[in-house]
Specification:
Strand content of chain A: 25-35%
CATH superfamily of the largest domain in chain A: HUPs
Number of strands of chain B: 15
Helix content of chain A: 25-40%
Radius of gyration of chain A: 22 Å
Number of strands of chain A: 18
Shape of chain B: globular
Number of domains of chain A: 2
Structural class of chain A: alpha/beta
CATH superfamily of the largest domain in chain B: HUPs
CATH architecture of the largest domain in chain A: 3-Layer(aba) Sandwich
Strand order of the largest sheet of chain A: 7-11-6-1-4-5-12
Number of domains of chain B: 2
Largest sheet of chain A: 7 strands, parallel
Distance between the termini of chain B: 56 Å
Number of helices of chain B: 8
CATH architecture of the largest domain in chain B: 3-Layer(aba) Sandwich
Oligomer: heterodimer
CATH class of the largest domain in chain B: Alpha Beta
Largest sheet of chain B: 9 strands, mixed
Distance between the termini of chain A: 64 Å
Order of helices and strands of chain B: EEEEEHEHHEHEHEEEEHEHEEH
């Protein structure tokens, strides 16, 4: 344990730039590294990702490890676990962080078991305990009904960070850092899965994760027609449309529209929850919103505990009048 | 196809949030009175994934569940849905574990079961939401893994898995044997049939203790934990919602628009 040093984060790249989660991890990791008085490093894995190493430094890294190989172009469990195992064993970080997304939630647990250490997935808060110097890993449990703080003494201490839970630093291109290339050393025959195609289910309009206003519907919307009405409201507000889990499970809307523990995590300025009761698992996806507006028939619905403004009433009556008045006010 | 599905008995996640209570002295959750436990919903979907393969090409499904105080009516659900066998790892020594001790015990049980082509798990358990027993099991068993499946088919000795990614899904082929974790996008699990319930009633589960698995008690349950839980707590909610009223529901809707524009939110 005494030999492990520093904080390391996995910096993912998407669309030719550093992914949002990478800058969030760099922000969170910088704070932890400073509290430990140790270095923050970033690992960039892929094909042709090295060009972005300087960007990781600008967002807070002291050192960037670049692992490039054409075999690493697409995420595959076996290749990424092998590469990250190699990096972790060479660098021996004290803390190793990834994003809680389709890469991190697949890679982190498998890598933790491979490295004979532990991981806590979906952390919303990470800190260094001032006495033990261990990583305090806070995560929602029981579908968001409670939170638990975990520690582990096995190294590296691994965690994945929920999207938007970390605050990126302001980009500073004058920051200096070191870039180190690490050989992937991959054996193609050891990769036991093959990604044949990616099928993108594009949703019309503004992307949920990027929208500053989100209009979401729940079980009480009753069917796909109701979502058309929410879509019109969203268009007026330049908002994205989301849903809680029941409308997705019932096939009223595509799964990609789901906001919640098992869907997308959003943090818009305004989140309008229509006919959503506010289960913990849904709130896990939207509680970071600056203002939640609730429209629900049930005055006791849990969503009103989270909302800043609310109307108790049938959405079929409330929403059309709300929309008409907005049209008038916005014109 | 020989398939193994890992299922966990949990406090019903659909229980009203107000019924959720914590015993802070013990760092544990108090089961809500009058709400029976259920099979974790993601695990039910894992059973469904296995059943769809059995429907298509035949096969045998063995459900494995680890825990203490396992209610037979609850843990027999996979049998009543159409699974063939049920193995319970039920012993006080399994209690209080984390992902490491749970995966260690399940891996030993799966080795003892022996023949399998696919091991299914839910993407995460609805209680601790750890989301790592599946991948951990795959690592301990040396199997390839595909997580977050929304559809699984078997062809030419391989599994074709549609894996959920943020804007859709990717089609992943994996050689067998493999471990696959199932996400909620798979769709609703089937209901138990009367025939299935009757068959499940007659079927006695196989119960294994640590000694049956040949694993040391130090590796499982609370003593096998590698993570320490310092604190379990309920986040405080502010609860200062301004309720907008009106002469009727429509009027309240119009007033909401006025209030939000006054507050410069829209």
């Amino acid at each position: 344990m005494a030999d492990n040093k520093g904080v390391m984060i996995l910096a993912e790249v998407g669309d030719g730039k550093l992914a949002g989660i990478a800058t969030e991890l760099l922000g969170a990791g910088r704070k932890l590294a400073d509290d430990l008085g140790e270095e923050l490093s970033a690992v960039m894995v892929g094909s042709g990702v090295g060009a972005l190493a300087q960007e990781a430094i600008a967002f807070g890294a002291d050192k960037v490890y670049v692992v490039e190989d054409p075999l690493l172009k697409d995420y595959r469990t076996d290749s990424y676990v092998a590469v990250m195992e190699k990096v972790a064993k060479e660098v021996m970080p004290k803390v190793l962080l990834m994003g809680q997304n389709s890469v991190g939630r697949d890679l982190a647990p498998r890598l933790a078991f491979k490295l004979d250490t532990t991981v806590t997935l979906d952390c919303v808060e990470l800190a260094i305990d001032p006495d033990s110097k261990l990583l305090l890993q806070t995560k929602p449990v029981y579908g968001g009904n409670a939170r638990a703080i975990f520690t582990s003494e096995s190294m590296p201490q691994m965690a994945t960070l929920r999207m938007k839970a970390g605050e990126p630093l302001a980009r500073d291109d004058s920051r200096k850092g070191e870039v180190v290339n690490i050989d992937a050393g991959l054996d193609a025959s050891a990769i036991r899965t093959e990604v044949m195609e990616k099928v993108l289910e594009e949703v019309e309009g503004i992307k949920l994760e990027d929208a500053s206003v989100v209009v979401s519907g729940g079980r009480g919307i009753g069917g796909p027609e109701g979502f058309e009405e929410l879509g019109e409201l969203a268009k007026l507000l330049k908002a994205a449309v989301g849903a809680s889990r029941p409308p997705c499970d019932n096939g009223w809307v595509p799964d990609t529209m789901q906001v919640g523990l098992t869907g997308k995590i959003v943090s818009p300025d305004v989140y309008i929850a229509v006919a959503i009761s506010g289960s913990s698992q849904h709130l896990a996806g939207c509680s970071g919103s600056k203002n939640i507006i609730a429209i629900n028939r049930d005055a006791d619905a849990n969503i009103f505990k989270e909302a800043a403004y609310g109307v108790v009433g049938d959405w079929k009556k409330v929403v059309p009048a709300f929309k008409e008045k907005l049209k008038e006010l916005l014109s | 196809m020989n398939m193994i599905v890992c299922v966990k008995q949990v406090i019903d996640p659909e229980a009203p949030p107000a019924s959720f209570k914590i015993d802070t002295a013990k760092n544990s959750v108090v089961p809500p009175a009058g709400v029976p436990p259920v099979i974790s919903p993601f695990d039910e979907q894992a059973v469904e994934a296995a059943l769809r393969i059995k429907d298509a090409m035949g096969g045998k499904i063995t459900a494995v569940s680890l825990g203490t105080g396992l209610l037979r009516d609850v843990v027999k659900k996979p049998l009543s849905m159409g699974a063939d066998e049920l193995v319970l790892l039920e012993d006080p020594a399994f209690d209080g574990g984390d992902s490491w001790s749970t995966a260690t015990a399940l891996a030993a049980a799966i080795k003892k079961i022996g023949e399998y082509d696919i091991v299914f798990c839910g993407r995460q358990a609805a209680d601790w939401d750890s989301g790592q027993v599946g991948s951990g099991l795959a690592e301990l068993l040396g199997l390839p893994s595909v997580t977050l499946a929304k559809k699984v088919e078997v062809m030419d000795g391989k599994a074709k898995v549609e894996r959920v990614i943020p804007d859709g899904y990717e089609v992943v082929w994996v050689s067998l044997p493999a471990l696959i974790t199932v996400s909620n996008e798979l769709g609703e699990p089937r209901y138990a049939t009367i025939k299935g319930i009757m068959a499940a009633k007659r079927k006695e589960p196989i119960v294994w203790a640590p000694a049956d698995l040949g694993i040391d008690a130090s590796q499982i349950g609370a003593t096998g934990r590698r993570t320490k839980m310092l604190r379990l707590f309920q986040p405080v909610r502010e609860g200062t919602c301004e309720i907008i009223e009106g002469e009727d529901e429509s009027d309240a809707g119009a007033n909401l628009a006025i209030r939000l524009s006054e507050a410069k939110l829209l």
